[in-house]
Write a structure and sequence with these properties.
By secondary structure, the chain is α+β, with helices and mostly antiparallel strands. Helix content is 36%, strand content 15%. It is globular, with a radius of gyration of 26 Å.
């Protein structure tokens, strides 16, 4: 069990100190509470997202008007022993409260009709042992926590201390009590103890929250644009650092580090683990080991995105010639992928099916593979349900929804996601690729070891689409000119 100070306690409720913790003397406990300046009393600036979250919550409640809905933020996750990963709130919690960055471990939003209440662990007095001893909540450990009033100012919500949550949930409700599953195990146990397990209700709630994000509001679209702009700055920095990456060895790590620096400086951090794949590694779809060299003459496939403070992330891929110039074989494959992407973007329009984007891009991929004499069957055969041979060289899908998660809306029903219709306000990626492994004997020798992916973030508009990442050069000539300009300084 856990005591309030974060320590194990014995049967007599006496603390059992971990190996690394030094006991606190009574003299220290008296002294530490003395002579602190008072906390600021000015109102906190409202979170910009708070203007938009009321409508989002109302849309959820409209689907479950008689139910009490619990959306946990989640808690810390252990990295090793007593070291945790940096906290990131659950996406549904962030979406409905507007709280991003690392707000707010162990909090929960409760919706019941028009009433929305945020429960979180409020700031304690400096006379409380938590102030100096708690590695989870203590001001000496993690900084000053907000008060209830400050959190209310920030979110525009009714705010209560988390100690009141159990009593609130125990109150009778005309409908069902639902909680987002697999987010906060202790809160899940509490809800199940009060109502009994109800996985069907919880799953339906999780799906609804995911589907709510299929269409973005104006704030979300602006944040995604901001994430793309920050990501462009990160790509520029990588291009500028490529000579160092080649010279210093382990160039993939150098690229990863340079982009990570800018992601953390310009936003909240990385939206996902950076893929910095040089040479043959570009043929491995999720190469995040990033431990290889970068050599002149190789391609660098850089798949990276900055997550801004609101947690919205870009997801961009460019394949760059390390030397600054494509070889004829690299240019051949790159142009094929660019043609496929152009076809996919042209198909991304309101009224089209989500799957139409993939179909348009992969048709071009299959046609190019046929022209190179690689495909063992005709184009129409490989694109049929009984075919699929082209997937040896492009095994992944062309698109996914993008937003507060890099693979957003993942719990949505298949008929609304892969089988769904594109609508204004949806944001998707378009990211075809061709990956020709050096060990693939079906591939012409001149093309072996070349991997190319090109990815942009696309907003569906009323009359077509808009490329949110349009500032990233894309044609082979433009990529070479971009690299030359950046490296000239």
């Amino acid at each position: 069990m856990r005591g309030r100070e974060g320590n194990d306690v014995n049967a007599d409720n006496q603390p059992v100190l971990p190996n690394r913790q030094v006991p606190y003397s009574e003299a220290f406990k008296t002294f530490i509470a003395q002579q602190w300046a008072p906390y600021a009393t000015t109102a906190a600036e409202p979170n910009p997202a708070a203007v938009w979250t009321g409508a989002r919550r109302a849309a959820v409640v409209a689907q479950f008007p008689d139910d009490r809905l619990v959306i946990p933020a989640g808690g810390y996750k252990v990295r090793s022993n007593d070291c945790d990963y940096r906290f990131r709130p659950h996406s549904a919690f962030a979406h409905l409260t507007g709280l991003g960055e690392d707000f707010e471990p162990d909090a929960a939003l409760v919706l019941e009709g028009e009433r929305a209440t945020l429960y979180f662990h409020e700031r304690v007095a400096r006379t409380d042992p938590e102030f100096y001893s708690s590695a989870e909540y203590g001001e000496m450990w993690v900084g000053a926590r907000p008060s209830l009033a400050e959190m209310a100012d920030l979110t525009g919500l009714e705010v209560r201390d988390s100690s009141e949550l159990k009593a609130r949930l125990a109150e009778s409700v005309s409908g069902r009590l639902r909680v987002v599953p697999s987010v906060d195990p202790s809160l899940q146990r509490l809800v199940d103890a009060l109502r009994g397990p109800d996985s069907e209700a919880d799953k339906a709630f999780e799906v609804a929250l995911s589907e709510l994000r299929l269409t973005k509001d104006a704030f979300e679209i602006a944040e995604l644009g901001r994430a793309c702009a920050a990501t462009k700055a990160g790509f520029d920095a990588v291009i500028a650092a490529l000579p160092e990456a080649v010279a210093n060895g382990r160039g993939e790590r150098w690229v990863e580090g340079v982009f990570g620096l800018h992601a953390r400086h310009l936003g909240n951090g990385l939206g996902y683990d950076t893929i910095a794949a040089g040479g043959e590694h570009a043929c491995t779809l999720h190469w995040i080991r990033n431990n290889g060299p970068l050599n002149d003459g190789d391609l660098l496939l850089l798949d990276a995105g900055v997550e801004v403070e609101s947690l919205y992330t870009a997801d961009i891929t460019r394949t760059l010639p390390v030397s600054g110039h494509f070889t004829p074989a690299q240019r051949q494959v790159y142009q094929a992928v660019l043609d496929a992407q152009s076809a996919g973007i042209a198909a991304a329009r309101p009224g089209a099916k989500f799957a139409d984007v993939h179909a348009a891009a992969t048709r071009v991929v299959a046609e190019k593979l046929a022209q190179w004499g690689i495909l063992p069957v005709a184009v129409e055969q490989t694109l049929s349900q009984d075919g699929g041979e082209f997937r040896r060289w492009m095994v992944h899908g062309t698109s996914h929804h993008l937003g507060i998660d890099v693979h957003d809306c993942a719990q949505a029903r298949r008929e609304l996601y892969r089988g769904g219709e594109l609508k204004p306000g949806m944001v998707i990626t378009v990211e075809p690729g061709i990956y020709l492994k050096s060990t693939d004997l079906l591939v012409p020798e001149a093309l072996r070891g070349i991997g190319v992916r090109i990815e942009d973030d696309i907003l569906i508009t009323e009359d077509g689409c808009r490329v949110l990442s349009a500032d990233f050069p894309k044609t082979p000539d433009d990529v070479e000119a971009w690299m030359a300009e950046v490296q000239r300084g």
